[in-house]
Specification:
- The chain has helices at residues 70-78, 96-102, 121-127, 141-144, 150-160, 177-189, 208-222, 232-235; strands at 3-12, 22-28, 49-53, 61-65, 67-68, 84-88, 111-116, 133-137, 165-171, 195-199, 226-228.
- The protein has 239 residues and is an alpha/beta fold.
């Protein structure tokens, strides 16, 4: 069993509730979605190699085969000497068979953050016991260009709560009243769900004032569980 991985590097987590934690990022290859703001376009290409950062924050990489076995991947991770991993993509849950083989070998050594589109419900059920926190995207058609996945997001939350999870919503000023209504329904159904609104990057590409007013409406209604956090790693000019 091998996993397809685009790149491995260490950096400061720049998104969500684990903001500021230094982590090893393991970026999986492949995703059925094609969000307009995707920052990993290689995930949609038939590549044969991956890359591993030689030293933190240098963006100097060594090439590696695209596929990793469990032992080989763990040996690579140990060289970073960190205790926290962000499993990201692409969509990692599209390779759940590899995750089922790999994650049980990590649990005593690392904290695990899974970043997911929040639509692969059955796959997540198979590995959620090995995940310390799930960052579940809520895909808004107005910002992603994708179709809506309200039913899938609802089912994902049903299966994950009270397991540790927060929702991340990449948004802009074009959020529609219909989308706002669906979000309110989810927030009311899951009153303990932390929510992070993340403005689309780069911020200069959107009407930030109008976008923030959209998020403010939710803060006024749902209180401090609503947060607005941009992609902080981009201010640090790191990956």
């Amino acid at each position: 069993m091998k996993g397809r991985i685009i790149e491995i590097f260490s950096s400061v987590q720049g998104e969500g509730l684990w903001l500021g934690i230094e982590q090893i990022f393991v970026r999986f290859h492949g995703c059925k979605l094609k969000c307009s703001y995707c920052d990993t376009p290689l995930t949609h290409h038939a590549i044969t190699k991956s890359r591993v950062e030689v030293f933190p924050y240098t963006q100097e990489f060594e090439n590696h085969a695209l596929e990793y076995g469990v032992e080989e991947l763990n040996a690579t991770l140990s060289s970073f000497k960190l205790q926290s991993i962000a499993i990201t993509g692409g969509e990692p849950l599209e390779q759940v068979e590899f995750l089922e083989a790999w994650l049980p070998t990590l649990k005593t050594q690392y904290q695990i953050l899974l970043e997911t589109s929040g639509i692969e419900v059955e796959a997540f059920k198979l590995i959620k016991q090995y995940v310390d926190m799930a960052s579940m995207d809520i895909k808004l058609p107005s910002s992603s260009g994708e179709k809506p996945y309200w039913k899938e997001h609802d089912l994902f939350l049903e299966q994950t709560l009270p397991h540790k999870v927060y929702a991340k919503i990449v948004f802009n000023e074009k959020m529609t009243p219909e989308e706002e209504g669906h979000l309110e329904t989810l927030f009311n159904k899951y009153p303990e769900l932390p929510v992070v609104f993340q403005p689309v990057s780069p911020l200069r590409s959107i009407n930030l004032q109008e976008a923030l007013l959209k998020a403010r409406r939710f803060s006024q209604k749902f209180g401090p569980r609503i947060r607005v956090i941009p992609q902080v790693h981009k201010y640090l000019a790191v990956m």
